[in-house]
Amino acid sequence: MNAFDLIPDLKIGHIVEVSGTTIRVELSGDVTELTRAYEGRVYPIGQIGSMVKVHFGRRLIFGFVTLLRMRSEELEEIGKPIAPDADQRLMEVELFAEGVWNVADEKLTFIRGVTTYPLPRQSVQLLTREETARIYSAAEGQQKHGDYSPLVPFASYVGADNAVCSANVDKMLGMHCAVLGSTGSGKSGAVAAFLHSLLEHTPEPEKVSHPRVLIIDPHGEYGSAFKSRSVVYRSYDPLGNEEGFGCPIRLPYWLMSADEFRLLAIGKTEREATSQNNIIYKALTHARMEKAGLVEAAPKGYDVDVPDDGLDADAPRPKAGINQEQIAEFDTDKPRPFSLEELVNHIRYSQAVNLTASRKTKAKSATDLSKEGFRSILDKLTVLRRDPRIRFMMEELNDNSPSLQHVIAQLVGQLKDEEGDDQDIRILDISGLPNEVAGPLTAMLARLLFQYKVYQTSDERKRDPVVLVCEEAHRYVPDRGDAEYAAAQTAIRRIAREGRKYGIGLMLVSQRPADIESTVISQCGTWLVLRLTNAADQQHVSRFLPDGLSGMTNALPNLAQQEAIFVGEGAAMPARVRIRDLPKNKLPKSETAKFAKGWILDRLTENEIATVAARMAG
Description:
There is one protein chain. By secondary structure, this protein is of the alpha/beta class. The strands form four sheets. Strands 11-10-24-23-22-12-21-20-13-19-14-15 form a twelve-stranded mixed beta sheet. Strands 1-2-7-6-5-9 form a six-stranded antiparallel β-barrel. Strands 16-18-17 form a three-stranded antiparallel beta sheet. α6 (258-266) packs antiparallel against α14 and α7 packs across α9 (340-351).
């Protein structure tokens, strides 16, 4: 028997209504059980997400089952009387593709989308597993272009004899993607499986792939998954380099834009008055100009002369040989080094002073300092500089400070381990950082990567595409206006909107899609959605799912572990897939606590508790 033949044993019903790409099918009276046996195999009928076909001459039309119900339920909903014979079963199917089967070549020409619509009374048939596998194979085969393959196998199709599922990474990462799923659904494992598949992929024979991937890891779970193929940068490690993983990252404060530094210095709990913003902007502008050699250093004490040039006492004044036009053209948001000490001196000795006719005298009174915001900013800067959790950001500029080149090389440059293996995955472990720091830090990284790509030539961009993975994305780009996330929202939103043009891709990973900023998540062109049990999250996902397949969200609460709905630009066709298995040493460290096991073990002794307490207070 040839594939895609019209086989009476596979007929399950006929079409009773056609509405756009949605058809309604009435199951045949001989379908007594919701299964059908054919050639020794049992096929389910009406399973959500399963595929069916409609023969239309030589053309085949394919659809996904999205709903199965009794006609009596429908009549009851619209308030009509239920007839005694209203026991028919109705199935809703979303049409998504069509094709032509060439018997001579045994080849399926697959066309995504529907141009020929079926008609009422036409029969609907099940697909055999062999036919399903041929559809997936034909769909993926059309995505191979040129002399290399962008298809990365990372899963298998459910219900198709475990046919391998590949993602088109050019489209998936170039047009951004989202990996979503409730806690415990295998979300982190899915990300790890996809990234391991990227590392193993050979786009051309005998040519090794070296992905540029930066993961923002808020729970410190990915370092154990990639071992020698990754570098783990720890921003803060209260346990003293736990498990020997990681090395300190150097991301100095001067990488921040004026807005990011303002958010850090003023903080979400402070009154963000215009005067406070101006204090930071003036001091930051002065400190950057001073380091660039454009202006004189700020005073280091009180009782100094005020220049008699008509400008404000704290206005930037060009050094000898520098003109006012150079001052006006200076861009304060570029990642130029500056001294924190200089910034503090400008606030304390140039802005927070009383002025006489010709001199800067003593500092303003404590009341004036507090009223105008100087005191809170100076206090906050002191606290930030002493906080061990963010020492990697707040070290004073000195001769050993990293250059911009070194900072970028940490993130995307070539690094090798002691054996000479490339460490392609860069993991920034920010576990332990407070939210008011995590937001500006994420903003700084996203903006730095984007600027790096903007300033590349087209040839450099071709050789250096970069992917930013935002784990727990709802934490950095939430769908609300919290002050500490404002800069991160702006930076990641810009990558989502414009990153494709510059060769920077975005992967959002979250257990709460409804809490992610809608502008960002709507820019994702590919979706890998694991089990979602929250109704609000399911509805949110259904609004963004492409291909008119929002009905597939009905299957989300019942997906098995490691199963997902894979749809969008990176998928050859919408499908239910099972993520590949990884050995334990390649999985993220995200195990759920085993309470029953833990409660039969010995309690911590008081000495052990004292050790933990010392770490907490140390």
